[in-house]
Write a structure and sequence with these properties.
Elements (H helix, E strand, L loop, with lengths): L1 E5 L7 E4 L9 E11 L1 H8 L9 E2 L3 E9 L11 E4 L2 E2 L5 H4 L10 E2 L11 E5 L3 E3 L6 H20 L8 E4 L3 H12 L5 E5 L2 H6 L6 E4 L5 H8 L5 E6 L4 H9 L1 E9 L11 H5 L5 E4 L8 H9 L10 E4 L3 H11 L7 E5 L1
Parallel strand pairs: 11-12, 11-14, 12-13, 14-15, 15-16, 17-18
Antiparallel strand pairs: 1-2, 1-4, 3-5, 3-9, 3-18, 5-6, 6-10, 7-8
Helix pairs in contact: 3-4
């Protein structure tokens, strides 16, 4: 089968011929229909997020059709339209039993620790495969498995309630979903901070209030917009020490800052005025949970989470085009997501 693989850290991905995966009794072979290109994939290629074993087929945002089913898998049939949960966990350790599979001691990320969806086929355990509703396109089903699912997890971790005010730092794939999901939760004041003019111009169309960080301190802008009260919840999806600090400082009393973006930088906060005096919380957000995916699909089915024309770009399963897309994802580009379509 055709696959696009990372063969050498710091080097372009390469076209490859890989053997068709053989499945075990509890596994499923999926014919890939769509696979999203994530910022994490660029991190893997660059070596920012280490990969221990090469070559590996990247791609963790996957949707497709069931090709074959192991004898112990009973909830799926060949030809079913499906989406994949990207974290393969053991299902029996303490974290898995408590519903926190992202901390499984034996967990493997598809597209990093095991071959992913930049290929014609992928095999995964049956418990990682879920039926995709007919009304949701493969492209949307794929990309929701990372950015949208993680955005939902961030809002859940922040204990967001209806009518609370929200500030989202970054309007890429994660921020785009976070804005729509915050609105789906019933929040009407959703401030979205970015520096890209095209993205800022599109925020209002999704019910958000644009904050241009190039026009002044976004914390001050949010303070003015909220009459000095600050927001109830902030979501940081940029991965910058600067925006993480801003996400904390823009909070009001009892505010909760959910930090999603990845950075190697150290953030600085003033404990008394910025945390203690307002009893605010700083919350780490790691991946998402299988149990959150049904609600995500419900939002997509009722139109509360969608990607209109112009926010997705499709490319073929081709190493040159995928490498170019990975180069682009590291910049603040105008389009939201790129998806490989087979």
């Amino acid at each position: 089968m055709r696959a696009i693989q990372l063969v050498e850290i710091g080097a372009p991905l390469e076209d490859a011929e890989a053997p068709l995966p053989e499945i075990g009794p509890s596994e499923v072979l999926v014919r890939v229909a769509a696979c999203g290109i994530c910022h994490s994939d660029a991190h893997y290629r660059a070596g920012i997020s280490p990969i221990e074993s090469l070559p590996v087929t990247l791609g963790h945002e996957v949707a497709g059709r069931v090709e074959t089913v192991g004898r112990d898998v009973h909830h799926l049939s060949p030809k079913d339209r499906v989406y994949l949960h990207y974290l393969v966990s053991c299902g029996c350790c303490d974290f898995c039993r408590r519903g926190h599979e992202q901390f499984c001691s034996k967990g493997q990320m598809i597209g990093k620790h095991r071959d992913g969806g930049y290929a014609e086929f992928i095999k995964v355990p049956g418990r990682n495969v879920f039926v995709l509703p007919d009304e949701i396109p493969f492209e949307l089903g794929a990309i929701m498995m990372c950015s949208s699912a993680t955005a939902l997890h961030a809002l859940n971790k922040a204990r967001l309630k209806s009518n609370e005010s929200v500030a989202i730092f970054g309007f890429g794939g994660l921020g785009f979903s976070a804005l729509q999901l915050a609105r789906a939760f019933g929040c009407h004041e959703v401030y979205v901070v970015d520096i890209n003019p095209a993205k800022l111009n599109s925020i209002a169309a999704f019910g958000g209030i644009a904050i241009d960080a190039t026009a002044g301190d976004p914390v001050e802008q949010i303070g003015e917009a909220t009459d000095g009260k600050g927001v109830d919840v902030s979501i940081e999806v940029v991965g910058s020490a600067i925006t993480m600090g801003q996400a904390v400082r823009c909070l009001g009393v009892f505010g909760r800052a959910a930090l999603v973006g990845l950075t190697a930088e150290t953030i600085s906060v003033f404990p008394y005025p910025e945390i203690i005096n307002k009893e605010v919380e700083i919350i780490g957000v790691s991946d998402h949970l299988t149990t959150e995916l049904p609600l995500l699909m419900q939002f997509a089915r009722n139109g509360k989470l969608y990607f209109p024309q112009g926010t997705l770009r499709s490319i073929d399963l081709d190493a040159a085009r995928i490498n170019a897309a990975l180069d682009e994802v590291t910049k603040s580009s105008d389009h939201i997501r790129t998806v490989i379509v087979l």
